[in-house]
Amino acid sequence: MRTRRLAVVGGFEFTPEIHTDARGLFVSPLQEEAFVAAVGERFVTAQTNHSRSARGVLRGLHFTTAPPGQAKYVYCAQGRALDAVVDLRLGSPTFGKWDMVEMDAVSYRAVYIPDGVGHAFLALDDDTVMSYLVSTAYRAEFEQAIDPLDPALGLPWPYDMRFLLSERDTVATGLAEAQARGMLPRYEDCRQWSASSDPAR
């Protein structure tokens, strides 16, 4: 498993080894030993999610109020996607910074998104399937959204594509307004919650 630190503190990219033969392939996108070596704690999975998207579907930018927060481990099981990780944590040394990772069902590259960090992806092919492991169960009242096209973020989406967003994402607020409204999580709260929620600690 190859590991890369993202530009967002606490975020990582993981690229697994792929085993192929005449029958097809076998790959393990999440490996605990490599994850703990990079992140310093186990990834506790409370729920798994699965989405299928047409080319041009842009999902996000989403995050979960912390606490309870929600960390994510995401990979592309089919098709191709451009994945964005944005630091929305007030007080973080990388607040407002982002990293982009191209994912596909060739490399099975995955990203780890810690509590309080925003996540979005753009499907680059039809029938793009994204698989998520998440650290907390979904609760609608804690889910938040930031406009993924907010110019203040400067995310380098390929603007030659026609985007398809949900109604919720279309009307999502920009980063500055979210900060003014007190919507954004605090870095220290996210770190404390993450540490306290790991049963191995």
What's the structural blueprint in terms of helices and strands?
Blueprint: E1 2-5, E2 12-15, E3 18-21, E4 24-27, H1 32-39, E5 47-53, E6 58-64, E7 72-78, E8 80-87, E9 98-104, E10 110-113, E11 117-123, E12 128-134, E13 143-145, H2 167-170, H3 175-180, H4 187-196
Antiparallel strand pairs: 1-2, 2-10, 3-4, 5-12, 6-11, 6-13, 7-10, 7-12, 8-9, 8-11
Molecular structure report:
- The protein is mainly beta and 201 residues long.
- It has a single domain (2-189), classed as Jelly Rolls (Sandwich), CATH 2.60.120.10.
- It is built from 4 helices and 13 strands.
- It has helices spanning 32-39, 167-170, 175-180, 187-196; strands spanning 2-5, 12-15, 18-21, 24-27, 47-53, 58-64, 72-78, 80-87, 98-104, 110-113, 117-123, 128-134, 143-145.
- The strands form 3 sheets. It has a 6-stranded antiparallel beta sheet, covered by helices on one side.
- Strand 1 (2-5) and strand 2 form a beta hairpin.
- The mean pLDDT is 94.
- InterPro entries: RmlC-like, RmlC-like_jellyroll, RmlC_Cupin_sf.
- It comes from Streptomyces aurantiacus.
- Keywords: Isomerase.
- The active site is at residues 62, 132.
- One of its GO terms (molecular function) is dTDP-4-dehydrorhamnose 3,5-epimerase activity.
